[in-house]
Each structure stands twice: as C-alpha cells, then as structure tokens.
C-alpha cells in the first residue's frame, strides 16, 4: 500500500505549514502591538503597520497555491476538506493581522502622555494575553488535528468577551475629563480589535473540526456589546 | 411489477415464458409500460421514464476456488448512474458481469446469491439467459463493433435475431443512433464499415447497438478507458441523457469520471463492498477510512 500521490501530498503539507505559519506572524504582530500600547511606543506601532504586508503576502501565496492544487490535482475527501479549511485559515490570519494594524493605528492618536486609567489598561492588556493564547492554541489544534483543543477555543473566547464588556463599562465611567474619555474610547476600540482576534481564532478551531469530521459546527459566541 | 420487466422472452422469441403475464401490449395501457426505442427517441426530453432497479443479495463470485466477490449486497436505483470504483482485482468487473450472467460463461466460474431486476430473480432456473442479456445491455472497455459489418448492420445485428420487420429495423437503427448521439455524424454513411469510425464513435456505435435491444439496464465496463478526453466527455454527456431511460452501472478506474457522471458510487476492495453512498459524499466525506485512503490516492 504505497502512497500514490506523493508530490501532491507533499505540496499540500507545505501549504498547511505556510498557512499555519501566518498564525505565527500574527502572534508576533500582536505581541508588538500590545507592547506598543503598554509603552505608548509610536515607532513600534509603525513597524506593526508596515509589517502587515508580510501577512498579506503570505495570504496571496497560500491562496495562489490552493488555486493551483485545485486546478491541477483535484483533491477529494480528507484532502479536499483540508484544502477548503486552509483557505479559511489563511483568511482568518489575514483578518487578525488587520486587527493588529487597527490597534497600532490607534496608538499615535492617544497622544504622548495619555490620561491612563490603570485598571482599564490592565483589562485591555489581559485581553491581549488571552487573545494571543487563543491564536497559539488555534495553530496547535490545527497542526495536531486536536478537536478537543479546538473546541476549548470557544471556552477561552468567553473570557475575552467578558473582559471586552468590562472594558466597555469602565470606559463609560472613565470620568469627567474629555481627554480621559477620549482615551477610554480608544481603549474600547483596542478591546474590540482584540475581541475580533479571538473570534477569528475560534474560526480556525471550527475548521479543525471540519477537517476531522466533515461537519461544520459553529461554536456559540457571546454577542459583543458594541 | 414483473410484467414490466423484459426478461420475459415471450414477446420476442418463441421460448417458454417466465412471467405469467404477457409483456406490455401496444397502444395506451394503464400499466407503466416502457416505450420502444423509437418512441423513446422522440420523447427524449420527457422528464419521467420508468427505470428498473437491480438488487444484489449476498452475491458471491468464484473463479474455481478463488472467491472474487464476497457477500455483496447492493441496490442499483432506477434511472440512476452508479459507479463502481476500486483497485484492479477488487472484483468490481466480476460483480458487474454477474448482473447479466456473463460471469458464468467463463470456464470454472460460478456465482451464488440473487440478482433481482425489480422483483424478478435473474438466476431463477426458469429464466432464459438470452433474455437476461437482452434486458441488460453491456458496453465494454474496448469498442468492439462487428468488424465485417456496416454501421447500420452493427446496430441492427441484435434486432435481426428478434425477427423485426425490415422497415421497423430502419427506424430503430436511426432511433438508436440518435440515442447514442451518433446519428448526425454517420447518417450519410450508414453502409460503410463500423470499424472505419474513430474510437469514440465506435464506442457510441456499441452503445447504439446495446440500446437497440431496448434493455432495462446498461452495464458499462470502463467504457472510456480507450478514448481520448473529448470522446470521453461525449460519452459522459451521453450517460447523463441515457439515465433518463435506463438504470446505468459504470465500472471505472477514473475517479474523476465517477465523480462527474455517477449519482452514487460504490467502493470495492478485495471482493468486498466497502461503502456505497451518494457520489458527493464519497468524494467529500466518506464514512470508511479505506474509502478515504483510496480516493485520496493513499493506496491503490
């Protein structure tokens, strides 16, 4: 029982590595965006914006590779499901990359010495840590076809969503000063971006389950407040 | 239902009848009668045609001591195309040859189990084997027109045996050639040898010859494996049209062909039926891991 489509399966495995590698790029981008936020480092934020091209480039590469495989190799069954799932994965990665850019673009807007509400910033950074963990876990779940780990992503997502709501409530109470309210408003937008990163990680988890079972199961996601 | 099934040889050849009832009478009848090929050709666009179901029950097929088909249960639904796939030697051709009782012609070969055409058991001792083969037409891998005969005579060959009037024969030949999508290409040279046609045309000639006998079921054993891609696509188009009238079983090594033409696909391995399901399911999410491994090329 020899493997008969060796070249094809090798190429498919390569594409998977490329697509999942995009999630590593997202983690890097997220780390830098969060550091820029915490340190109010405008220069680092501009790097994040510039480096989004790498994720976009990866998206185009994987997309083209998948089109070629479909045209030339006519994948079926598990292979077909993997190919379809990789298209989703790379799209999720691309969107997470865009959310990192959204965060980075907000950083110069809050000014040099923003009127930080420490407990609010702490919540946002905690969200960042949780969303980052989700991206890492989504990659692992896909790589190992670990359905349980994939399902766990939606459990983690509930915590991110809960923090998001908390940030929103705290922002509403941010105080009388206009500067402070403006800063708090920016933080709700950062929180929203992080919440979207979490949702995209859950989307990757759904693809793991699709590849393994052929079923599409949308995980229950709490509705965000904004 | 047995009256609709033409394994009853009574209406065509003078042999004892299996069925207590005569075959459908000419003219309008309340029963679901199958139209002649001539009528069928005229009514090609009609959506509803009555097809017949083939049911295999516990089929075993042997070559001497070797058991090539092992306890297969399978239903070929009426007016549907069923593809048989599986690696060489898995028993798919053997199984299909059991359906029209060709397997038993091989010295030392035999089979056990039941093949039902609707409700009639084709292996019943009272059944006339010739009538079975007329009711169940077959098209082979290599186009095999009778080499000495003209195009017209190739199609008429089966009809001669059933003592049709000669003007009927002309009509039936035309209807059959039209049914096989070949008429326009050959109508001006019906008297030239069939062997002078291209491979794809020869194969459609063989299909015309098969449907001239007004079968209930068409068996196709790799009908395109000797054809170029365009001729293959023509045959596949034809299969799609033919299923409006016939129940079709196609053995193919080309999985993309199975995916294109078949409504359901059956996967066999080492004489056993592993899985039979909608073609879409077989090629997107098969239940059995062996099916998955075969269609994705992990073994073969």
Topology, please?
The complex is a heterodimer of chains A (226) and B (300).
Chain A: H1 6-39, H2 42-73, H3 77-106, H4 118-143, H5 147-172, H6 178-213
Helix pairs in contact in A: 1-2, 1-3, 1-4, 2-3, 3-6, 4-5, 4-6, 5-6
Chain B: H1 37-42, E1 54-63, E2 66-76, E3 81-85, H2 92-99, E4 109-117, E5 120-121, H3 129-135, E6 136-139, H4 151-160, H5 166-179, H6 183-186, H7 199-212, E7 217-221, H8 229-242, E8 247-251, H9 255-261, E9 264-269, E10 272-278, H10 279-284, H11 289-295
Parallel strand pairs in B: 3-8, 3-9, 6-7, 7-8
Antiparallel strand pairs in B: 1-2, 1-4, 4-5, 9-10
Helix pairs in contact in B: 4-5, 4-7, 5-7, 7-8
Structure description:
The complex is a heterodimer of chains A (226) and B (300). Chain A has one domain (6-213): Phosphate transport system protein phou homolog 2, domain 2 (Methane Monooxygenase Hydroxylase, Chain G, domain 1, Up-down Bundle). Chain A has helices at 6-39, 42-73, 77-106, 118-143, 147-172, 178-213. In chain A, α1 (6-39) packs antiparallel against α2 (42-73), α1 (6-39) runs parallel beside α3 and α1 (6-39) runs antiparallel to α4. The longest helix of chain A has 36 residues, at 178-213. By secondary structure, chain A is mainly alpha-helical. The radius of gyration of chain A is 19 Å and the shape is elongated. Chain B is of the alpha/beta class and 300 residues long. Chain B has a single domain, classed as Rossmann fold. Helix content of chain B is 32%, strand content 21%. Chain B has 11 helices and 10 strands. Chain B has helices at residues 37-42, 92-99, 129-135, 151-160, 166-179, 183-186, 199-212, 229-242, 255-261, 279-284, 289-295; strands at 54-63, 66-76, 81-85, 109-117, 120-121, 136-139, 217-221, 247-251, 264-269, 272-278. Chain B has a 6-stranded mixed beta sheet with strand order 6-7-8-3-9-10, sandwiched between helices. In chain B, strands 2-1-4-5 form a 4-stranded antiparallel beta sheet, covered by helices on one side. In chain B, β1 and β2 form a beta hairpin. In chain B, α4 (151-160) crosses α5, α4 (151-160) packs parallel to α7 and α5 crosses α7 (199-212). The interface between A and B is medium-sized, with 16 and 16 residues.
